[in-house]
Amino acid sequence: MRGFNDNWRFYRGDVEGAEAAAFNDASWRVLDVPHDWSIEDIPGTEVAADAIWTDGTSRIPSGPFDRYASAGQNATGWTVGGIGWYRKTFGKPEVLPPAGKTEIRFEGVYMNSDVWLNGVHLGNHPYGYTEFVYDLSPHLKDGDNVIAVRVNNSGHNSRWYSGSGIFRKVWIKTAGEMRIANHGVFITTPKLNMEFAQVEISVNLENDGALNREATVWARLMDGTRIAGVIRQACIVPAAGSQTVTCVLQLQGPHLWSPDDPHLYLTDVVIEADGKVTDSETVMTGLRTVEIDAARGLRINGQGIKLRGGCVHHDNGPIGSASIPRAEQRKVEILKANGYNAIRTSHNPPSCDFLDACDRLGILVIDEAFDCWEVQKSPDDYHLYFKDWWQRDLESMILRDRNHPCVVLWSIGNEVSERALPHGVEIGKALQEFVHNLVPTGKVTAAITWPYDHDGQNWQDMQPAFTYLDVGGYNYGHVTRYNNGVDEFAGDHVKFPERVMVGTESFPGQAFQYSEAVENSSWIIGDFVWTAIDYMGEAGTGRASIRKAASTSRYGGESGGLWYAAYCGDFDLIGNKKPASYFRDVVWRRSAIEMAVQRPVPKGWTESYGDWGWSDELRSWTWTDFDGVPLTVRVYTRGDKVTLLLNGKEVGSKELTPADALKAEFTVPYGPGELKAVAYQGGQEIGNMAFSTVGQARKLVLTADRPKMKTSRDDLSYVIVKVVDDEGHMVPDAVVPISFSVKGVGELAAVGNGNPKDFSSFRQPRRDTFHGVCVAVVRPTGQAGTIEIQAASENLENATITLNTEEQAN
Fold it and tell me: For 36, which DSSP code?
């Protein structure tokens, strides 16, 4: 199988006749996929001013944003979908005679894609998040061939930013008439412990020939460069039929996969027929056991583990939904480095590269299939296709993902409207049975929430939804105002003591309460905060704003203009930690003490934020022009006492009780210098931290997360720009315009910051800093050499950094 991702031609809009091989696409733009056109500037707005939508009446788009977009609007971050075309010309692949086969595999196209080869329609695929395959063989010709793809992302079909286009990878596979079925290798371990492993490699073979044929399956298990086991097995595959062959290997002293030791084996499968290799496939997997019950919770390889999880949408911030492997891995790296051991892929199957990263780094996954079934959440969403497509889409997800050791739960839905109604229970049971047939040891869950969508129902009315789940998923199941202050975890455990529960969504402000519930209850196996990383769309979900009266909205205040991002993540759109994440460090015992200062609020006003939000806090004691103004200082600790000092003088002390939920709050008149917090436990200091007033912005500093990259287009370097003073200290609230230039063997893939209200272009070489930081995402162009990036801002000392790219060794 080889990549089929470079040199596509693209046109944004609909074109009559573009499916025809002879269509003239010479004027179309040339690009590589994965590609997302919704993150790009709307044509004609490339030089639009940063200040947009200011006159209140005119239609003034900027970059990828349009306030008057007909579909989605704040749900999709004010971005535009529509229709786009892709075309690619390629030579006829060579295949084994007499009946070799060529297939094209799309990992994900959002959405409603139609594909043609040389003018012949191959099929339509509605769902944007599942893989699909077409047989090209009957329609290939000698010489040039043309594949054409029409993508129709029209209407209001998503509750979040989906992106548009061929946003995941494309592959071409050639094989003989005796071949491995699509994702036809399934690796299981019926017997597994530290001393011994029985590894079963099941291979589903397909024979396109008119006669029964003998085939030989070779399976080799590699542990790094060491051959751990090899087996050969012969079989007869019926004419125009299929046959599953199971190869069994015995391993002594296997190296097991776990989040703390994510060790992977490589399995090579080779098919021979008539003395020739007709097909092959390579699968990475980890050997591990998963056990779940209410008495002992979740165990990996017999060891108990609690899921410290977060929900993650599929977009990659400034690069949109384009699934570039380095961007996918970076998300996982950030969460792993900050104490997370689990991710819920809300609310759709993720990319292959994302799951590969979770395998390599040791992050457990709830792999989620659908956001709706037959009842709509948006007028044009998947409910239109569910009846006809759910089996194909669920099978596509499971066959693709079942060898990933990171996947421990399969979610069949999120807050599905009909989840507890009689017809919905029938659907749920069918989905569960379907999963179990494909993965007999797999555990099924779904996210069940309070009955907001059916008048007159209560939580008891939701109980039928748990009858088809192996693990009950609870969205906001702890004490909240949505469930009238009832602890659904505790109440349901009394009624259903054998039920295993997981917090599939929780509020960031209740991190401590959820952590306590998980730690103290064997039947609650983990918690997934909404959300781990900021995402585009559901704009303003986590907003904090100020007003003269406290907000009663669950989304906080409405002041402060429009937002395009949710801003409810532990990490912002470019991967920087936010205050909620520092609090979580204390909750998860990764830090003894953390501190933040609330942005000053004008006299007579109050700050307001909703259940998914957080106070507008900064880790800063630099508040120019606020001398003497009382500021709110919050200290987070598991200690029982906190003392606060300003320039060495005590300005406050507080004893903490369990009711304080790890938070001590002080009011301190601002004065420049050092603000220091000290935490104690039983009279002994357990930690301290301090903020010092910094000077004025003087210069820029650049830091690259990857100074050395591969030449591959799959790689990226995130070059962080920081505004610092004369001493090199970051100016924590600096907002300055940055201009970028890139020279050498790289290109500027995107620019961005964490500001959910900055409607600037992600493609133009300029961006304002937010909280003193912004980012330039640099992508190799495919050659070895150097890339020079310069960041400039008027009245500041500019900065330059050099990156290197090198060919990857085979």
Answer: -
Q: Identify which of 279, 299, 282 has the alpha carbon closest to the alpha carbon of residue 290.
A: 299
| CATH of the structural domain 699-806, one choice from 3.40.50.261, 2.60.40.10, 3.30.950.10, 1.20.1250.20 | 2.60.40.10
Q: Is the CB of residue 411 less than 8 Å from the CB of residue 468?
A: no
What the block records as the tokens of 217 is: 């399956």
- Strands 766-768 vs 746-752: parallel, antiparallel or unpaired: unpaired
CA nearest to 170, candidates 338, 271, 307, 35: 35
The CATH classification number of 290-529 equals: 3.20.20.80
Per-residue pLDDT at 238: 97
Residue type for position 446: A
Tokens 């203009």 sit on residue: 561
What pLDDT, on the 0 to 100 scale, is given for residue 477? 82
d(CA 18, CA 11): 10
Residues 552-595 have pLDDT tens digits of: 443 344 445 789 999 999 999 999 999 999 999 999 999 999 99
**Position of tokens 């893989």?**
131
Q: How far apart are CA 326 and CA 797, in angstroms?
A: 31
Task: Report the amino acid identity of residue 252.
Answer: Q
Domain 2-175 superfamily per CATH: Galactose-binding domain-like (2.60.120.260)
The answer for 318, left when phi > 0, alpha when psi is -120 to 50, beta otherwise, is alpha
Q: How far apart are CA 191 and CA 281, in angstroms?
A: 24
Report the SS3 class of residue 76: helix
Q: What is the pLDDT of residues 360-403, one digit of tens each?
A: 999 999 999 999 999 999 999 999 999 999 999 999 999 999 99
In the chain, domain spans: 2-175, 178-285, 290-529, 544-568+591-619+623-692, 699-806
- What pLDDT, on a 0 to 100 scale, did the predictor assign at position 482? 54
User: What are the tokens at 434?
Assistant: 């379907």
Task: Dig out the tokens for 155 from the structure.
Answer: 């209407």
Measured CA to CA, the distance from residue 445 to residue 419 in angstroms comes to 12
Per-residue CA distances from 747 to 35, 686, 762, 786 (Å): 15, 47, 13, 11
Query: Which residues does 268 contact at the CB level (< 8 Å), separation at least 6?
Result: 218, 219, 220, 222, 280, 281, 282
**pTM of the prediction?**
0.95
Residue 247: name the closest of 264, 235, 261, 263 by CA.
235
Q: Which long-range contacts (CB under 8 A, 24 or more apart) does 577-584 make?
A: 577/338, 578/614, 578/754, 579/614, 579/615, 579/617, 579/618, 579/619, 580/508, 580/509, 580/511, 580/614, 581/338, 582/619, 582/636, 583/511, 583/636, 583/662, 583/663, 584/338, 584/339, 584/508, 584/511, 584/529
**In CATH, what is the architecture of 544-568+591-619+623-692?**
Sandwich (2.60)
Q: How many helices (H) and strands (E) does the chain have?
A: 7, 47
Q: Mean pLDDT across the stretch 101-125?
A: 98
Whether the ω angle into residue 178 lies within 30 degrees of 0, i.e. cis, is: no
178-285: CATH number:
2.60.40.10
732 vs 618: CA distance, rounded Å: 8
